[in-house]
Design goal:
Layout (H helix, E strand, L loop, with lengths): L7 H11 L5 H13 L3 E7 L5 E4 L10 E2 L5 H8 L3 E4 L5 E10 L2 E11 L5 H21 L5 H5 L7 H9 L4 E3 L3 E8 L7 E7 L3 E9 L3 H19 L5 H16 L5 E9 L4 E7 L3 E6 L2 E4 L19 E4 L5 E5 L1 H4 L13 H8 L5 H16 L8 E8 L7
Antiparallel strand pairs: 1-2, 1-6, 2-3, 4-5, 5-6, 7-8, 8-17, 9-10, 10-11, 11-12, 12-15, 13-14, 13-16, 16-17
Helix pairs in contact: 1-2, 1-4, 6-7, 7-8, 10-11
Length: 397
């Protein structure tokens, strides 16, 4: 086995950057074989519903999937976001399962089969860094190839869902001040629900939109809403003015016949102060000191319902240790078989039960709880959930 120092990572990352978009996996295999005597390398990507991990293979065929959660080592590595070293039946060999995560966005797992002496703690750390490098290059490669997007699909997306997924910033983000996790269902047929976020050195902006209607019409409406909000946000204006401009764009196109219920939050990263604009049905819940409560906001008109609506901001405060959950109407307004709203009691109980889970797993748990409450995976309405764990800005040294 080659006995290369840790600086092999720099050369490996350079080789990954130079690889053609469709050759990332074959390049990774060659690099790990040369440096670590790896016998096999598999890249498993999380499907859109975050239920299974699917191997990247020659399309349209794919290899056997593994559960994204449960007892499988790769699933444990994905859900726990930690390396898992599996002892195999082959003498002297192990398989290291490394999370492929980019700035908090969980993409999948890199599984490397290699000789056991290479699985010590320092080598596992090197493999974890290598897996992160693969994730960075894969996101860049997606601009030029459909290979990795197709590998995530258990089945065909509807056209509306295709449009919605292309709008999303990702399904997670992490920095010093906070961690974000989000989930959408039905993943392969989502229509009008959407979430978006953007960060600067001083602020985080989150929006959750729930476009009226179904299918293509809802997706077109949400596409207009999200891009109108982005256009306004990038001009540097206040959240209230962002809502006003987006409202004008939506009304100008639909004349009030269609509208987009939207919650807009802008966080000051240094103080935790929030400017909130509640323009419709998404609801905000807060878990603080093991107590879950709905944050009451001043309801204003959905974007595009009336011509030249005016919006204003409502101040809020988030404290270190708070967990915020934003749920679209398809979540809090869902009905059980006996006609009770999910948001009345069950949603709060579900949020409380996620206290020890990560933000990513919390968002998914809320949707799982909704599915159980509804009694079927065939949800009648789109469901979007965003979870934010707030730590606040670290004190200056």
């Amino acid at each position: 086995m080659s006995n290369q120092p840790s600086h092999w990572l720099g050369a490996a990352e350079s080789a990954l950057r130079a690889a053609p978009p469709t050759s990332l996996l074959s390049t990774a295999r060659s690099l790990l074989a040369d440096y670590l005597d790896a016998r096999s390398v598999t890249l498993l990507l999380a499907d859109y519903g975050l239920t299974v991990l699917q191997p990247v293979t020659r399309l349209p065929h794919t290899g056997e999937t593994v559960p994204a959660r449960g007892d499988h080592p790769a699933g444990r590595a994905f859900s726990a976001q930690a390396a898992v070293v599996e002892v195999t039946s082959e003498p002297g060999m192990v398989t290291a399962h490394l999370p492929v995560t980019v700035r908090g966005d969980r993409l999948g797992v890199l599984s490397v089969h290699l000789p056991e002496p290479s699985a010590g703690a320092p080598r596992v750390l090197e493999l974890a860094a290598f897996a992160t490098a693969v994730g960075h290059e894969m996101l860049t490669a997606e601009r030029d190839t459909d290979l990795y997007l197709q590998a995530r699909r258990r089945k065909r997306l509807t056209l509306a869902a295709e449009m919605q997924w292309q709008l999303l910033p990702g399904r997670g983000f992490m920095c010093d001040e906070y961690t974000l996790g989000a989930h959408l269902e039905p993943a392969y047929a989502i229509g009008g629900d959407n979430f978006d976020w953007s960060t600067t050195e001083d602020h985080l902006t989150i929006t959750v939109s729930d476009g009226s209607g179904h299918g293509i019409q809802a997706a077109l409406l949400t596409n207009l809403t999200v891009n109108a909000l982005r256009n306004a946000r990038r001009s540097g204006i206040s959240p209230a003015d962002q809502a006003c401009l987006a409202d004008q764009a939506v009304y100008g196109e639909y004349g009030g016949s269609r509208y987009s219920a939207t919650l807009l939050l802008r966080f000051d990263l240094s103080t935790g102060r929030i400017q909130a604009v509640d323009a419709g049905s998404p609801q905000l819940y807060r878990l603080r000191d093991d107590i879950v409560e709905r944050v009451e906001l001043e309801a204003q008109m959905p974007l595009g319902m009336f011509e030249e609506s005016e919006y204003h901001e409502q101040p809020l405060q988030v404290e270190p240790g708070d967990r915020l959950i934003i749920a679209s109407s398809g979540v809090h307004g869902a009905l059980s078989a006996d006609g009770k709203f999910f948001g009345e009691i069950a949603l709060r109980e579900t949020i409380a039960a996620t206290r020890s889970s990560s933000a990513h797993e919390a968002a998914r748990a809320v949707v799982d709880g909704l599915i159980q409450y509804h009694g079927s995976h065939d949800l009648p309405h789109d469901a979007a959930v965003v979870c934010l764990d707030w730590r606040g800005r670290p004190a200056a040294p």
